[in-house]
Request: fold
Amino acid sequence: MNVDSENTGKKLPGRPTSGLLALIGVFLFVVMDLINAQPIDPYQAPYPTALGSGQIPSGAHCTNVSAVD
Amino acid sequence: MDISSPDSKKRFNLCLLASALVFGTFYMAGPRSAFLLLVGLGFGLVLEGFRFGFAGPWRLAVKERDGRGLVAQLMAIGLTAAIAFPLLAANPDELTGAYAPIGFAMIAGAFVFGIAMQLVMGCGSGTLVNAGSGNLVSLIALIGFVAGSFTGSLHLGWWNGLGTLPVLTMQDLFGSGGGLWVTLLGLAILALVTLAWSEHGKRKPPLRLIAAAIMLALLAILNLVIAGQSWGVVYGLGLWGAKLAQAGGMDVATTAFWSNAAHAERLQQSILTDVTSLTNIGLIAGAFLVMRWRRSVDPQVTNLQPVSWMVVIVAGLVLGYSSRIAFGCNVGAFFSGVSTGSLHGWVWFVSAFAGSALGIRLRPILLQQARPVMEVGIP
Reply:
């Protein structure tokens, strides 16, 4: 494996362009997901904070083992 | 200050972009989602703005006997724990910690994650932050991370079948108050060991890292209060992979992991309602904002041979897969696990740090010529 900036002469896009690519990628993914996923019902939106909501947390986390066993 | 200068205009536009992201999310998904995106933006701003990382400080601690970054991490975790433990004890029906079992696959996964994070110089949060700040290596690794995290979710049951202990928490073992003191004592001992190991002049974290540690702790608490759960990264990336696979025609919903009610719901609902997806998006966007805000932009990484780019993708894949079977990365398992009392967080740290030490040795062998490339960016 060689670093080839000198070998190939190919220049990579700068950080602003690459960062923008990342943002655009995420944006397109969100749009795709909005099309495919169930519509968000604003009347079902949860209380602004879990603390004070009186509800059990329903989000998923990488430590969630409920589906593993 | 000249408000008509190019810099001022650029920064005004960046503020507009951040506002549009938050208000757009508020409009589409409600206040909780908007708040979580805001917290994610905060994480991105702090990590990129203060150059606070995980992989880099571990490498510096091992190679340069420079413990400042690691001590700052321990400070952030301790501060978070000091608030999170009482919050969790007082609100057990609304808030939950990052609790997972210790197991063979978890330990092995953390070890492999430690190796891979030194190969690509990025952990879970670091890969997102670096991708947002325009590091092309991390952007490519992120694609692998998403695929790896999703693939790991498909095999998680098998890995877990190798054997796990029950979920053990400091609260269960010592009570809430006692658990907090044991956690703080453990962090203090670890900090003292780090300080003793570090060379003179490389012990006390600079003000920049102390400020970042305090802000990270506050953001982590906000995450807990708003989401009801601790800060995480890996689940969101696995969910992105699952949604992409589903869009590509794969019947993801029938797999063991994604047919579980909790995960099936995430798969059906928009990611604008998923906690970790929102903070992940915020991390990327926050890092982008900081990168563009700066007057001078860091140089892009040096170009690589095609085979090296493949190595980057594979390393990203390994990062995602190993963190999925390890029940989290440096954020979900180490930062959030330890700060909310999960014993698996401590075991994760020991295993990942050992893997990291090996990764540091392997890096010059596996990525001999890529090393100067990888060192550009926030680890």
The radius of gyration of chain B is 20 Å. Residues 7-370 of chain B form one domain. Confidence is low (pLDDT under 50) at residues 370-378 of chain B. Residues 170-197 of chain B form the longest helix (28 residues).
